[in-house]
Design brief:
The protein is of the alpha+beta class. The chain folds into 3 domains: 58 residues, Orthogonal Bundle (Arc Repressor Mutant, subunit A), CATH 1.10.10.200; 95 residues, Alpha-Beta Plaits (2-Layer Sandwich), CATH 3.30.70.980; 71 residues, 2-Layer Sandwich (Alpha-Beta Plaits), CATH 3.30.70.980. 45% of the residues lie in helices and 24% in strands. The protein is built from 10 helices and 11 strands. The strands form 3 sheets. The chain has a 4-stranded antiparallel sheet with strand order 4-2-3-10. The chain has a 4-stranded antiparallel sheet with strand order 6-7-5-8. Strands 1-11-9 form a 3-stranded mixed sheet. The longest helix is centred in the N-terminal third of the chain and has 19 residues.
Length: 249
Amino acid sequence: MSGHSKWATIKRKKGALDAKRGKIFTKWIKEITVAARNGGGDPAGNPRLRTAILGAKGVNMPADNIDRAIKKGTGELEGTSYEEITYEGYGPGGIAILMESLTDNRNRTTGELRHILTKNGGRMAEAGAVQWMFQSKGVFAVPRSAVDEDTLITLALDAGAEDVDTEDPETYEITTSPQQFEAVRAALADKGIVTTSAEVAKVPQNVISLSEKDAEAALKLMEVLEDHDDVQRVSSNLDISSDLLAKLE
């Protein structure tokens, strides 16, 4: 995999696809609201909520916004009811795509995502068609400036991480099982090691490299999907060489 960039790495390098701050806030508010609704408003006993709060703080969301989102989730404040839906599809070059969404209108979101896929060289897939290609994993991105390689590897593996990828020149990527996500998060926090992202995400078991034409089309499609208001996270088995990614940028 040396010299290549998986979709999660591409997103980080592109600055979360240059998403507008207001749109990022909206996505985190939805996630916090649903996490509080499903698991309660106390982050100490709700790992999903705790992770969402960390993510929101990571994009400098004001504490008042976070508190309101929690109260909407617990019913202390009136709020919108969101449904969690994972859509599956294919993109240019046959890449597999998962679109995790929170929506207050299933029909609207389904229609809009289908249209985006079709317009950009992809298509919607039946439930289960591509989901089997992915596994849920805890994923941390740690800037190289935060810690030396040997220290991080020892710390992460001792805390239960499965792997520490050191190929990227700017960022370490730690992978864990979902069950060990909290232990690794706590170990990093205890040593004051900052992360640029920390989430439980869908990670592809295998990746696909594309031609320049298909790669360019795939990147465009993924950016449009990421920008959709109802889409929280997009996962793909897209893989692009570092040289090609630099050329397309």
